[in-house]
Amino acid sequence: MNKKLSIFILLFVSLMLIAPVAAIVSVTNDYYTIYIDDGGQGEFTVGTGTMHPYPNTNVLYGGTGYPGTSWFEINFYDLSDIATLFDLQSYYQGVAIDTNSMTETWDIGDSFFSPSTGNFVIARTLTAHGDTYASSYVEIETTFTNNLTSTINFGFWDMWDLMIAGSDDAIMRTIGPQIMWTGNFQGWYPPMFSAMEITDVAPPLNTFSIYIPFEGVDFTPTVPDNFIYGDWSPVGHWGYVPSGGYSDSGIAFVYGASESSPISLATGESTTIYQYISTNAEAFNINVPSDNNVSPVSFLPLYRVKLEQAIEMWECIISQLPEEISEENALLIESVQSFMSGAITLTNPIYANGQLSKAIDQMLLIQEAFDIDCVK
Hints:
The protein is α+β, with helices and mostly antiparallel strands. The chain has two domains: 3-284, Beta-galactosidase, Chain A, domain 5 (Distorted Sandwich); 296-370. The chain contains five helices and 18 strands. Strands 4, 5, 10, 12, 15, 16 and 17 form a seven-stranded antiparallel sheet that branches.
């Protein structure tokens, strides 16, 4: 049994015996769903939404609604103290929910910084952006505000637990420049590539990839001092040095990585870190390289045939739909439109062909629901 599954089962049983189940809160744009454990320390995770090509599955571990294995640590250099997310539980202020975003806050008070007065505030906003699959992504905006009476110097170590669909041992490659797919754990000090792509198995057999950008046109990711692809859970702790690989994996963003180059905030100052994640490279204008053993061009003939087939079937279905449509069937129709949009906008015929296959599968369900006979 997966060790993290064992942890969750044990935790669940313990909570049933001694306390109410933790309050999991979420927001979604229908393509991505963000979850926060508002009854714990504020751990988060990301999964796919109902309109995603692969609905209700993991983008990060626990993405089906069970946050708990991604966390952060703060190294307060002036205090010679490393505070984990769990150490800060008593300062956790909970979650404020908006339409497509949630903001959680830690207000670290006098008892932590004594004899200093005032407080140190961490506010983290997680937002599901976009109204189509092609435009959707998740933004994580973390703001640190120093209300202490003196300057504070610190480092921020943010770990995300990887799990693509059902694979806990996600593999990766960098883009711009590109490296070969690998599960070997390694670090970059700092990262000098434009994006990282992470997936379950090497394409074209993979389920989907996630993309983490380090540069952008319409947005500006905050480039960490260090970036590490490593072994969960050690990759989530300060000072981890990657080794080994091809096992349970996570990534760490490290900002203010050393006492000689900290994040430094004078009294009254704030700073914000921006991070992004999506399963669609086009959301970030990332040019995905062709895989080493498969040429996307070879899929063009199949793609063109299937596109013509899908358009013909869809036109036939639309012409026969009744005026009154249930909410359940309306979601089916919307999913076809999403898959067709993905097939037309994706530049890689391999992935576009997959979108068309999903669109056709949904069309067959619609035909069955409305007793429509359209040629496949």
